[in-house]
Amino acid sequence: xxxxxxxxxxxxxxxxxxxxNTGMDEFPRYVLEYxxxxxxxxxxxxxxxxxxxxxxxxxxxHGAEAERIRSYIREHREHTIIAxxxxxxxxxxxxxxxxxxxxxxxxxNIPEPLVKQYPMLLAGGMWGTITLTYDESEVxxxxxxPFKVTEFTPFQISMIDLKEFIEKRKLFDDKEWLDILVxxxxxxxxxxxxxxxxxxxxxxxxxxxxxxxxxxxxxxETGKTYLFRNVSYYAHVLSGGKATPAGLFIxxxxxxxxxxxxxxxxxxxxxxxxxxxxxxxxxxxxxxYMQDGKFSRGKKEILAFGSIVLVGNLDIQGKLPHExxxxxxxxxxxxxxxxxxxxxxxxxxxxxxxxxISPEGASSDYGFITDxxxxxMHELRRIDVxxxxxxxxxxxxxxxTGPGLTSRDVRAxxxxxSGLLKLMYPxxxxxxxxxxxxxSLAIEGRQRIRNQLHLMAPGxxxxxxxxxxxxxxxxxxxxxxxxxxxxxxxxxxxxxLVGEVTGLAVAGEQGVILHxxxxxxxxxxxxxxxGSIQRVMRESIEAAAQYIKVYAPDLGIAADWAENFxxxxxxTMMAIPxxxxxxxxxxxxxxVSALKNQPVRHDIAMSGEITIMGKVLGVGGIQPKLMAxxxxxxxxxxxxxxxxxxxxxxxxxxxNRIEVEYVTDIKQVxxxxxxD
Length: 676
Fold this sequence. Notes:
The chain is α/β, with parallel strands linked by helices. The chain is built from 25 helices and 34 strands. The strands form eleven sheets. Strands 27-28-26-25-30-33-34 form a seven-stranded mixed sheet. A five-stranded antiparallel sheet has the order 4-3-2-5-8. Strands 10-12-16-9-19 form a five-stranded parallel sheet. Helix 17 runs antiparallel to helix 18, helix 19 packs across helix 21 and helix 21 crosses helix 25. The longest helix is centred in the middle third of the chain and has 25 residues.
């Protein structure tokens, strides 16, 4: 296949093995491959590459050498460097200025023909060889601006033929082509399953599909931004730092359009660590833009085509997201956990399924030269290959229990599918089996978003089961999400029962519902704990019993109850060791209920530590406990007054879904929980 690949795409293919472990990781991939492709042959690679490295040593400017190079240019009046050149228009001067970070210079004189020749210089800059001259007579606004660009040669292919690319795609079957893509993106397809390959190339959808909004959350070291940093100079990666409306959309002072309007993909790396200087304004603008591709600041309204990509870390448990997450958007900053914003995402890529980067996982075969394929992806944004495909299937909600799919659901799936088709089948020749595979993947990415929205706001987002029907053979596609339904659903009692109380606990980092059953029988005051109850919880039972012994008359219990009854306290779930003091008020409520033969409200749950004086003390794990209560259908939760601040600091989607009552004394608990 390699020979056929190299012959078909002659001059556009490189042995990726030669581009790794070169000791030149400070360069973007497209720069490195440009140099190797133009100056190195496979037959004489080591010798040729030494010449490349000598050239780099002569022309590449390391950060610490900036002042030395500035001085060298001043003394010799001309010097050629390898660096990134960015250009901006300063309207007040009616002049273009260049910025070259390598020499710490932001006022480099730029000839206007250069701007017209390479407009990408205005959109984040380009790498290349830059010839600089020095002329101290260059004065602007009474300031000497001596540096001037006289020549610029970019590290990118000058001409591409998209029609030729599409036509030659037909020479390879889908397995061969998928391996070519994976190799071109820098990984070894032999170390991946087909599903892993498809998920990996789906990272590139925002590069071939305009206005595609995607999120990927997964474990560290899977190379979430590698593709954007190294494969496309049309993408911009924001790694932490500050993100402002001015930088992303429009600068109101200058009128300059930001990254969203000038780049094809804006990637928020380490999204949890990104500093949004004006979160409310940012979310508002992002929501509008992600909906219709427009944004406005002041009187300006801009139509843009940049894709929004959110990338962040997510802890895993085995091979799945950790059970501590109530929903799979929790790693996002709280101000981004807004249902209206999340609903505008088209695809949730399950980053936990993509293998971590390893030396064996790097490509060792032939792939497209990066700058060539970068331009191909750029051109693919301009065409539509999905129009004839959409008529071959229909989307529907198989659950049949709600209002059905929304227009956002349909749009999201169609845009994701369009991107996958451009990557895999740009020639438009797709069998029903191939179509089923891509449609299933597109549905899955949107279904994951809908599932989480239902968890976050069940009243607003009804559960749906997105399916597709292939019209020719009537086959129904209903993908199953690999993470499945990770939650343990607890059935609350259907009626008030004597001695049965619902408590809240934390198992590991996940909130759980515990049923406490207390039974009074004839005896001599023994307390019998059942159900894997650990030392601290046993102490809670002892404290509860002591309180009831002392205050029995105040509670309406016979003072001599301990002389006539034994108590058995059972805590389910049986398989989970029960530990901690937070079941104190639950145990007291159950004992009082059993001794007085008074039922407990079945729609209420509680958590709080008890003292022998009847005081209710604060407990931990408030967020996971409330999430467990919400999931179980609890209407009211009783918590210590000490935990009120903890609740108020929780996201609105939690606070708005359940009623919380705060107490300081066990008598308040009993008044709320026991029925007359």
